[in-house]
Design goal:
- The chain is mostly beta strands.
- 0% of the residues lie in helices and 64% in strands.
- It has no helices and 6 strands.
């Protein structure tokens, strides 16, 4: 009996309009199901708890960073 699953791809754009670089945390809630795995990612992430991940990113002055990831939920 194969598990049911769903893939979801997320993209978050972070812009910095300041004259200096900033360090930000992109906080993502993986709320669809408790069993998940990030299968692709543009940036390293830190797992905070069962349903929350943080992507720490540095955004250069007047710059933009795009955080992309793919998550697979299984149930």
């Amino acid at each position: 009996n194969d598990a049911d699953w769903m893939d979801e791809t997320i993209e978050i754009k972070v812009r910095n309009h300041k004259d200096e670089a900033v360090e930000v945390i992109v906080k993502e809630n993986l709320y669809r199901w408790v069993n998940w795995e990030i299968t692709q990612k543009s940036h390293p992430f830190e797992k905070q708890d069962a349903r929350t991940v943080h992507f720490p990113v540095r955004v250069e002055p007047d710059g933009e960073v795009v955080v992309r990831y793919k998550v697979r939920y299984t149930w």
